[in-house]
Amino acid sequence: MANLFTGEYTHSIDSKGRIIVPAKYRESLGESFMITMGFDGCLCMYSNEEWTEFVDKLRALPEMRKEARQTIRHFLAKATLCEVDKQGRILIPIKLREHAALIKEVVFVGVLSKVEIWSKERWEASEVDDMDELADKLSELGITF
Prior knowledge:
The longest helix has 12 residues, at 48-59. This protein has six helices and eight strands; from the N terminus they run ββαββααββαββαα. The two termini are 22 Å apart. It has helices at residues 23-29, 48-59, 66-76, 94-100, 120-126, 131-140; strands at residues 8-12, 18-20, 32-37, 43-46, 80-83, 89-91, 105-111, 114-119. The strands form two sheets. A six-stranded antiparallel sheet has the order 1-7-8-4-3-5. The mean pLDDT is 92. A hairpin with a 2-residue loop joins β7 (105-111) and β8.
């Protein structure tokens, strides 16, 4: 069965780019896992199993299309294997920190099969204020719950 990540946790990142991964997520992610750029200016963490499934989806994209190549590059160019140290921390490479504007406070957000990492400011700015309006837009696309 696939991992199901939920919840929201705020932690601080140190000047060297190290951050404690919430214990709840470490249990499912394991001692090492992949981290890469995500959408909307966040990062994404995948267990090795989920990463393999994600890469299989990328492999299935039609590489003759420019958009497919750009998407593949977006996710794979900066993808990094992270290992948890004895304090439960990982080191986030500088290029990934810059992409996600991770400076001080960081928010971990469980989103189905992955964990997103956001700067606190970006996370707060991205939160939806009107779920009714969002539900209406999804309904127009034929998406219902």
